[in-house]
Amino acid sequence: TGAYMSSSLDAAIDMDITELQDSLRTGGNEALTAQVKERLQVGPNGPMYYLLQDPKGKVIAGNIPPAHGGEGRFDLKVPRSNAPSVAVHAHGVILSDSEYLMVGVDAVPGREMHKLIVRVFGWSSAISLVLAFAGGALVSHNLLLRIETISRAARDIMAGDFSRRIPARSTADELDHLVASLNAMLERNESAMESVRQVSNDIAHDLRTPLTRLRQ
User: Fold this and answer.
1) Alpha helices in 79-173, H assignment, sequence order
2) Among 33, 45, 109, 152, which lies 20 to 30 A Cα-Cα from 116?
């Protein structure tokens, strides 16, 4: 975010420098000076800051104190009357006629925006984490309840209640598919147990008659 803010400030400064250089090419020093002074009349106290110096370092126009005349990007403090100095992000260039031009922009709003974005991102991340933990806890709780339901049904079946079935929730999820498979298996097991019971009853009945006759 900080890099994006800095690149945005640089883009605004470079655009202004390009327009001023075009004025110098088309209208000479007078047109350039007029353009700088016109911009200063619109915003003498910022947020844009300008400095135009002749080759000897004399200030022609501007609301920035005289500078060293070097090219490149700078961060500097610009003093103001009856107010604290302001942080300015600036770019200085040497023009074709050896004059020096520096254009800057108030960096405080960009920094404040950066802080605001970081703060909002921090809060949104914290809220997302809380919601994720809450959602995970809810899903885990529901999953444990369904597993306990399956376990309770299994304990009843092991205790001898072969007609017991596991209730489904009709959610068509993996657990519902598992429950359907288990219930189908229990149906077959109950049918098998019923068949074994019937065969046992038949054998007992068939044996009961000969034994009675032998006893008599």
Assistant:
1) 108-158
2) 45
Residue carrying structure tokens 């009945």: 205
Report the half-sphere exposure of 179 (CA within 13 A, side-chain side): 20
Residues of the chain with pLDDT under 70: 1-7, 80-83, 108-124, 201-202, 204-216
pLDDT at position 110 is 46
Beta-carbon neighbour count of residue 36 at 10 Å?
21
| H or E segment to which residue 46 belongs | none
Please give the pLDDT value at position 69.
72
Q: CA 168 to CA 175: how far, in whole Å?
A: 9
User: Rg of the chain's alpha carbons, rounded to an integer?
Assistant: 43
State the Cα angle at 88 between 84 and 91, rounded to 5°.
155
Of 142, 196, 190, 194, nearest in space to 165 by CA: 190
For position 101, what pLDDT does the model report?
Answer: 92
Residue 80's contacts (CB-CB under 8 Å, 6 or more residues apart) are: 45, 86
Provide the pLDDT for residue 210: 64
pLDDT of residue 142: 77
Do the Cβ atoms of 58 and 99 come closer than 8 Å?
Answer: no
Q: Write down the mean pLDDT value for the chain.
A: 76
For 118-126, which contacts have Cβ atoms below 8 Å and span 24 or more sequence positions?
118/1, 121/1
CA distance 130 to 8: 34
